[in-house]
Every structure is written in structure tokens, then in C-alpha cells.
Amino acid sequence: MLQIYNTLTRQKEYFRPLHEGHVGMYVCGPTVYGDAHLGHARPAITFDLLYRYFLHLGYKVRYVRNITDVGHLEHDADEGEDKIAKKARLEQLEPMEVVQYYTNRYHHDMEALNVLPPSIEPHASGHIIEQIAFVQRILDHGYAYISNGSVYMDVEKYAKDFPYGKLSGRNLEDIKTDTRELDGQDEKKHSYDFALWKKAAPEHIMHWPSPWSEGFPGWHMECSTMGTKYLGEEFDIHGGGMDLMFPHHEAEIAQSCAALGHDTVHYWMHNNMITIAGKKMGKSYNNFITLGQFFTGEHPLLTKPFSPMTIRFFILMAHYRSTVDFSSEALEAAEKGLARLQEAYNRLMRLTPSPESTVQIGNIREKCEEAMEDDLNSPIVISHLFESAKAINTVADGKGTISAADLKELQDVWKTFVFDILGLRLNDNSDTGSTTAEAYKGAVDLLLNIRLDAKRNKDWTTSDRIRNSLTELGFSIKDTKDGFEWSI
Ligand code: ZN
């Protein structure tokens, strides 16, 4: 039975779905104002692994991953210019052109990484009405206040009734000491209050009408709104990167509890970060490498280009809750590992069965399943696959034999775990060379036999059509006493 680590309770828990046979999961997606980088690949691949495993277990999964296209401001949640609007201003584009352009590129990168598309991919800007209604519910319950056309969460009031900070393990006192004092000019009561709705400054180009002002929703609001809209007031899983735990996810919990009176999410899951030489990767550091740069190798920190599958394998080689330190050498090691996996797969598919097995395949399926059920332990799954490669090599080298049943089981386990669950695309070149050639030869023979029949029936139209078409395609056909010969 699947166990996952719940960030909220800080322990591994058996996964029990809210509705039998169904899973609802929400994952925070990208803010689409630039190309995706390695830091985007990790949550996408982590939750793709979870999504694929649920599908493997036979669940019907509704997977929602949003696109943030409004309200994510430069500094934290409610200060600075909107990231999309800034890009649009610099590039002299309509903000939605920026959104569409980077959304398309994000999809392209995700497809290259073999990340399955979510069931629903809602945009924040497409849910303004719902967000306004959500803010109104919080106001109605007395946990927010209006100030100068903006609406803020009254964190102190909320914290009297609900535990604020429970996800990140902070309490209000810690948060108070961590935040700066207000300078008296601020429209907020406290510096730790966060915006639910912001009145747009005159130069702000993305704004919508609301009961409070012409403005835009606070960044955290979209996830509370769209998560509950598509998955219900209570749903199974909410995921994202660890960096989103505070303030984003903490704020989301507060908004949902304030509006609905109860928690929405049963299991909170967070993937750890990717570092470069021990430092968090990001635009503010000089270690920002986009996925496109990995694929082309065009970055000073890269020794060569790396395929999307190498990136995927590199990420899956670590457990999602461990940090991963990137270096070009580490990627080269992943590339070699993936090549070994490919070679073992090719050999496995070419093995021929014997009456009996002299090699042990063990209970490899159970072992791989156990690893996945232990909080998605992909590195252990990979190590089990490599372990079974020893038996494959023994048989392929003629030093052992494998029975038909064992061979079928091993091939099936490899296909299930490598392709369906880990989502690795290997070249399926095990025997395609010979089967393609056979199929091709069979098809040409079939056409020429039809032509022979046509000739016997004096159907010259069909006979000529087949000969002329094949000749045009570059075939040379010779009629012989017994039938025909052909070549290219
Ligand atoms: Zn979110």
C-alpha cells in the first residue's frame, strides 16, 4: 500500500483517497514570464512520477497544474511589479502574448522530458470572477479587511481561530520577528498580512473590476480558488517545490480555512531543491540554466549538450525529498547510467528462452513496487533494475539460461517500470531492425502477388498500376518463369 510523506504531519502516511478509486491532485505550476529551468523540471517530474504511479495502480486521477499569469509580483507576494507585466513592458508585448509564448515553450520542454500533461491546466487570469468570490467569503467571515481599495488577510485575527504556520512549522511570533516593521505609510495593519486583492497602480496594465477597486488578485489566491473549483472543497494531494511552503502554501491554507471553515488538502507533498555547487538555482544567482540550454549545451557551466531523458534520469536518480546538486560531471554520470539501462534493455529484448532458468530473477516486481510504495523511492527502483541487468547479461553472454515464463516476467517488469512509471523513453531498437525489414519485404511481396493474380485474370489495369507505382517509388521488378524478382 502506497505511503507518502505528508509535509503537514511530518511523517509517512498510508495514502487513503477521499473517494474510492479516485485521486484529486493539485500542483503549483510555473509563472510564465521566462523559459523553464532545471528548478521547474524537478516538481514537474516528481509529480509526474506520482501521477504515473496512481495511473499504474488503476486510480482515476484528476491532475490539476496551474499556470500563473497574473498576480505574481517581483518581491514576495504583494510588492513590486507583476512579473508578466514587467516582461511585457520590456518586450513591448501585450501581457497575454508573453503568457502564450512562455506557456507554449513550457509545454514543449515538458513534452521533451516526457512529463504527461495534467488533466486540467487552469490560468489564474481565467478565474478572476471565482477569485473575487473567494475573497468576498473571507471578508464575510471577518478574516480580511479592506484598505485603500486593496483587501488584506488579517493574519492576527485568523491566527486566533486557526493555527497559522502549521505547514512550515512556524508560529506567528516567529513570523512577527522575521518581518520588517511598517513605516506608517503602509496600507496594511501588519507587515505579515498578505494581499488577497490589490488595487492596481495607474501604470499597472493588468487589472480587472472588483467590488473594492480596479485591480488584480494576490498571488496565493489563484491556487485556493482553482484547487477547490476543480477538485472540491476537500481533496487528496497538493504538491509543489519546498520553496513554495512559505508563504505561498501557508497562505493558501489560511485562505481556504478562512473562506470554508476547514482544511482542503489531505496530503501536502514537497519536492526538495536543486542546487548548483551548493547554492539555490535562480535568476538572482549567476547559475541559472534553462532546459533549452541543457538540450543544446550552450551555457558556460555545461561541458556538452544533455538529452531530455538524461535530465529526467538525473532527477529520478535522487529521492524527491533529497537535495540534488547539479554539475556537468553529475549529468555525465547520469548519461552513462542511462546508456547502461538502454543496453540492458536491448539485451533483455533479444534474449531467447530455454526450458529452464539457471539465473534467478527473484521477486523483482515486488521489490520495485515496494520501493515505489515507500514514498516514491525512484533511486531504489533504478537500483533493482540494474541488479536484474546482471542476470540479463549472464544469459546474453551464454553463461546461463532463462525460462520463457521468467523472461516474459522480466521483460514485462522492465517495460512497466522503465516506460510507464519512471517515464523514461528508451530507444526500442531491440529487434525493430529485423521486424521492420521483414514487414517491408512482406508488403512488397504481397503487392507483387496481387499483380500476378491480376495478370492471370487479364486485369491489366491493376497489374500495370502496381508495376508502374512500384517503379516510380524506385523498385526494379523483373517477371520470371516462377513469378517475380524485385530489388531497389
Ligand atoms: Zn500555487
Walkthrough of the structure:
The protein has helices at 38-56, 83-91, 95-112, 128-140, 155-161, 172-178, 221-231, 245-260, 291-296, 308-316, 328-350, 364-373, 378-396, 404-421, 432-456, 460-472; strands at residues 3-6, 11-14, 22-27, 60-65, 73-75, 79-82, 144-147, 150-153, 195-199, 215-217, 235-241, 265-271, 274-276, 279-280, 324-326, 476-479, 484-487. The chain has 488 residues and is α/β, with parallel strands linked by helices. It folds into three domains: 3-271, Rossmann fold (3-Layer(aba) Sandwich), CATH 3.40.50; 276-421, Isoleucyl-tRNA Synthetase, Domain 1 (Orthogonal Bundle), CATH 1.10.730; 435-487. It has a four-stranded parallel beta sheet with strand order 4-3-11-12, sandwiched between helices. A four-stranded antiparallel beta sheet has the order 7-8-9-10. Strands 14-13-15 form a three-stranded mixed beta sheet. Helix 4 crosses helix 7, helix 7 crosses helix 8 (245-260) and helix 11 (328-350) crosses helix 13 (378-396). The chain is elongated. The model has no long low-confidence stretch (mean pLDDT 92). The structure holds zinc ion.
Characteristic terms for this protein:
488 residues; alpha/beta; Rossmann fold; Isoleucyl-tRNA Synthetase, Domain 1; 3 domains; four-stranded parallel beta sheet; four-stranded antiparallel beta sheet; 15% strand; binds zinc ion
Give a short overview:
With 488 residues, the protein is α/β, with parallel strands linked by helices. 46% of the residues lie in helices and 15% in strands. The two termini are 57 Å apart.
